[in-house]
């Protein structure tokens, strides 16, 4: 059984537009500050076709918060962070889920709702974290640390989730670890994001060790610690780019900037920032907390998406930091996904069943 939360539906006036012209006008009024008008003409045509096809095929579009602004604001039925979108995909009664995000997200949707067709508009939309570990790696770790429960970040592929006891997302990682520790598991593997693991360790006051140091060195024995996380050296290729210097440079020019950093950033960056949370938590913060200006240390499309909705807010940008995988998901490919029912996500049944348990446990405890 999974639980569900009600998340704002974006199925608004743009999606109900009765002509391309109407879709264009509505998109312009939302997106004029973030998408050039010549681009909007073309994108309104694509959005109009996508919204028609979605209705004809009883499909929904789930869009991660990192989607480009025109797609995010014109065709998504639901937007959210990994946790919200997982919950929605588990509970939808649409026949087709088009996942505008990356492969591990579409795979999660398929595992949670196996009777549905799950489509990912680009076959190549991967993730450096998901690519950093395999099911075989986890099996080796389990041999090395017998009986130690495995928590895996949702940014992993199904073979890793199948070897996992409980999944977590950036939104609930601390809660999952606290839950296990309260149940008496004082040694827990936390895979594969090195920085998220270190940040959760700092948040919960738990020690952290790594099983094999990349350049050799002495390994720590988990038995030497009262409470310890055993990490892995995966990194997000986007969030590892942010440096403490970025924050200091911005604060020199704008001392009243509120800095929000995603927990995939390094512990030094998180320490220097004012707030850290999942993409949804960052969006909620900007919506609900008034500040002279904000700096978001995360994928740069999200800043545009927030500004389109909150034009009165002042957002500073470090514009070059775009996730190359999220960037592959375009309106063009989303249209092709619906027209040709591509690229369908399949997960072998035995793996899906085991992976589903680790996801269900996460959804139950948080
Ligand atoms: P969220 O769950 O916070 O949306 O993060 C997903 C992700 O891939 C961040 O890089
Ligand atoms: Fe993966 Fe990082 Fe891209 Fe998120 S931003 S999908 S963690 S590579």
Structure described in brief:
By secondary structure, this protein is of the alpha/beta class.
Query: In percent, how helical is the residue content?
Result: 40-55%
Would you identify the CATH architecture of the largest domain?
A: 3-Layer(aba) Sandwich
Proportion of strand residues: 5-15%
Find the count of extended strands (DSSP E, 2+ residues): 13
Coarse shape:
globular
What are the distinct ligands in this entry?
A: 1,3-dihydroxyacetonephosphate, iron/sulfur cluster
Mean pLDDT: 94
Number of helices: 16
| Strand and helix order | HHHEHEHEHEHEHEHEHEEHEHEHEHEHH
The first-to-last residue Cα distance is: 13 Å
Main sheet strand line-up: 6-5-7-9-8
Number of domains: 3
Question: What is the H level of CATH, i.e. the homologous superfamily of the largest domain?
Answer: NadA-like
CATH class label of the largest domain: Alpha Beta
For the CA atoms, what is the radius of gyration? 21 Å
Q: Could you give a short account of the major beta sheet? A: 5 strands, parallel
Polypeptide structure, described:
It is a single chain. By secondary structure, this protein is of the alpha/beta class. It has 16 helices and 13 strands. The protein has 3 domains: 131 residues, NadA-like (Rossmann fold); 104 residues, Rossmann fold; 79 residues, NadA-like (Rossmann fold, 3-Layer(aba) Sandwich). 44% of the residues lie in helices and 13% in strands. Strand 10, helix 12 and strand 11 form a beta-alpha-beta unit. Helix 2 packs across helix 3, helix 3 runs parallel beside helix 15 and helix 5 packs parallel to helix 6. The N terminus is likely disordered. It binds 1,3-dihydroxyacetonephosphate (13P) and iron/sulfur cluster. The site of iron/sulfur cluster has 13 residues, from loops.
């Amino acid at each position: 059984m999974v639980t569900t939360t009600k998340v704002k539906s974006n199925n608004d006036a743009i999606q109900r537009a009765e002509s391309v012209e109407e879709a264009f006008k509505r998109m312009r009024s939302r997106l004029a500050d973030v998408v050039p008008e010549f681009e909007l003409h073309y994108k309104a045509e694509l959005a109009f076709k996508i919204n028609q096809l979605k209705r004809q095929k009883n499909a929904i579009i789930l869009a991660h918060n990192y989607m480009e602004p025109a797609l995010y604001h014109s065709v998504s039925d639901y937007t959210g962070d990994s946790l919200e979108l997982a919950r929605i995909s588990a509970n939808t009664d649409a026949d087709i889920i088009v996942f505008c995000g990356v492969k591990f997200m579409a795979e999660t949707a398929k595992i949670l709702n196996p009777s549905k067709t799950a489509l990912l508009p680009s076959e190549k939309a991967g993730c450096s974290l998901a690519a950093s570990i395999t099911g075989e790696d986890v099996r080796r770790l389990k041999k090395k640390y017998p009986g130690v429960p495995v928590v895996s970040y949702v940014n992993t592929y199904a073979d890793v989730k199948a070897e996992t006891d409980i999944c977590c997302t950036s939104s609930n990682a601390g809660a999952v670890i606290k839950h296990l520790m309260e149940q008496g598991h004082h040694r827990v593997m936390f895979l594969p994001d090195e920085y998220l693991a270190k940040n959760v360790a700092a948040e919960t006051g738990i020690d952290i060790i790594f099983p094999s140091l990349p350049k050799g060195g002495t390994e720590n024995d988990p038995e030497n610690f009262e409470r310890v996380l055993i990490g892995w050296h995966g990194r997000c290729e986007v969030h590892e780019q942010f440096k403490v210097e970025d924050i200091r440079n911005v604060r020199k020019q704008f001392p009243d900037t509120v800095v929000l950093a995603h927990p995939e950033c390094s512990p030094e960056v998180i320490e220097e920032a004012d707030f850290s949370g999942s993409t949804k938590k960052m969006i909620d913060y900007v919506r609900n907390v008034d500040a002279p200006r904000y700096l978001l240390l995360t994928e740069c499309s999200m800043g545009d998406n927030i500004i389109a909705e909150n034009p009165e807010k002042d957002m500073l940008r470090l514009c070059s930091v775009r996730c190359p995988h999220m960037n592959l998901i375009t309106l063009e490919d989303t249209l092709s996904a619906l027209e040709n029912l591509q690229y369908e996500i399949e997960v072998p049944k035995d793996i899906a069943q085991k992976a589903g348990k680790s996801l269900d446990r996460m959804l139950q405890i948080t």
